[in-house]
Amino acid sequence: MNIGIPKEIKNNENRVAMTPAGVITLSQAGHSVFVETEAGLGSGFTDEQYQQAGATIVNDAFEAWNQEMVMKVKEPLPDEYKFFHDGLILFTYLHLAPEPALTEALIKHNVVGIAYETVQLPNYSLPLLTPMSEVAGRMAAQIGAQFLEKSKGGRGILLSGIPGVKRGKVTIIGGGVVGTNAAKVAIGLGADVTIIDLNPERLRQLDDIFGSSINTLMSNPLTIADALRESDLVIGAVLIPGAKAPKLVTEEMVKSMPEGSVIVDVAIDQGGIFETTDKITTHDNPTYTKHGVLHYAVANMPGAVPRTSTIGLTNVTIPYALQIANKGYKKACLDNEALLKGINTLQGYVTYQAVAEAHGLEYSNVKDLVR
Ligand SMILES: NC(=O)C1=CN([C@@H]2O[C@H](COP(=O)(O)OP(=O)(O)OC[C@H]3O[C@@H](n4cnc5c(N)ncnc54)[C@H](O)[C@@H]3O)[C@@H](O)[C@H]2O)C=CC1
Ligand SMILES: CC(=O)C(=O)O
Predict the structure, then answer these.
(1) Could you tell me if the CB of 249 is within 6 A of ligand 1?
(2) Is the dihedral of CA 68, 72, 74, 80 positive or negative?
(3) Which residues does 222 contact at the CB level (< 8 Å), separation at least 6?
(4) What is the distance between the alpha carbons of residues 147 and 294, in angstroms, rounded to a whole number?
(5) By the 8 A CB rule, do 134 and 140 touch?
(6) How many angstroms separate the alpha carbon of residue 302 from the centre of ligand 2?
(7) What is the DSSP secondary-structure string of 184-217?
(8) Sign, CA torsion 240/243/244/247
């Protein structure tokens, strides 16, 4: 199969969808990889390294996109829709629930849209989301700590406190991969950490992992409102796979937070869990202030640490890419139920229920289309 790797064009997105090691794996299996020139530079991989690994370097985005399968990191931006072609297999993060225009464009061009974030194993885990959630969760605590500094607009709190001065309070809503990794770093920084989740079993697991280093709370509007009133930093880390994020934090709750406190809404890629995170920010201009609270809502947080993130992402995507390239997407997905769940658009239909619901579009069962 011919596989294209375009250069990412989102603001400060320095990741790339394949490392030279990934090229070697695919080339050795008989596939051809076409990498757009300088696509890997932001992650520290040169064109020469890709060539030595067996890739062909192409000079523009059109050539990288004009292949049977395209692998990317971020969802295509409007400037990239013109590259869609009939039957293209697009294997990338798609986050379609908050993206009506992208969903329409994929349907219109009969793109086989396989979303990293909805590939799901029988134990419900999301293997192609996990490493980036690990990165974003760890970053969320350190970014929150930075923006709490007075010179960055925050209330001037050191999360660890010092002897004689109390510690800062961090509330994490959603105790999955992002939440757990945010907690690890926040605990390491010495903060007073509370994790709120809807799943009692998950709360038990978190209690087993962290013991008395955290407080756990069942998610409901009262616990969230109470926790926010006292929080210096609140991290949004809820996910309902494929769906638009639920708005669990109302504007009134945000107004009750202390002046200069900080929100990091990691779930912004699915639309965000705060009523006040109504816009996505960028690494260039990452925060805005509303009701005296700093809001950070960057949808590609791992793009800031591209070397770590590119290697972490491709460690998990390459085995799936190899299955698609070796067998074709139909057989690969029929043989592997986890990959089948990744298909969000196919043959002009939306094949992921939560995405169809988010846009009021007809849902088609992928099993009726993949034969
Ligand atoms: N902004 C960025 O750059 C990045 C964003 N993300 C996003 O972060 C979000 C979280 O991802 P993961 O931690 O991997 O998901 P996950 O599936 O591991 O965890 C989600 C957690 O939310 C909990 N939850 C569901 N409904 C809830 C509710 N009503 N109240 C409280 N908790 C609730 C679930 O029980 C689960 O523990 C996703 O939207 C993901 O796409 C991930 C990586 C990078
Ligand atoms: C998960 C995601 O959206 C990211 O890593 O940018």
Answers:
(1) no
(2) negative
(3) none
(4) 8
(5) no
(6) 7
(7) HHHHHTT-EEEEEES-HHHHHHHHHHHGGGEEEE
(8) negative
Tens of pLDDT, residues 346-356: 999 999 999 99
pLDDT at 72 over 90: yes
What is the Cα–Cα distance from 170 to 141, expressed in whole angstroms?
9
Nearest CA to ligand 2 atom 2: 300
pTM given for the model:
0.96
* Two structure tokens written together for 147: 């923006």
The closest of 26, 242, 271, 14 to 116, measured between CA atoms, is 242
Which residue in the block uniquely carries the two structure tokens 């993060």?
A: 93
299 is in an annotated binding site: yes
Pocket flag, ligand 2, residue 137 (CB < 6 Å) = no
Q: Six-digit token pair at 194?
A: 């509370």
Of residues 192, 232, 269, 295, which has the active-site annotation?
Answer: 269
Give the model confidence (pLDDT) of 206-255 as tens digits: 999 999 999 999 999 999 999 999 999 999 999 999 999 999 999 999 99
Amino acid at 177: V
Q: Quick one: which atom of ligand 1 is closest to the CA of 265?
A: 1
Torsion of CA 142, 147, 149, 150, to 10 degrees: 180
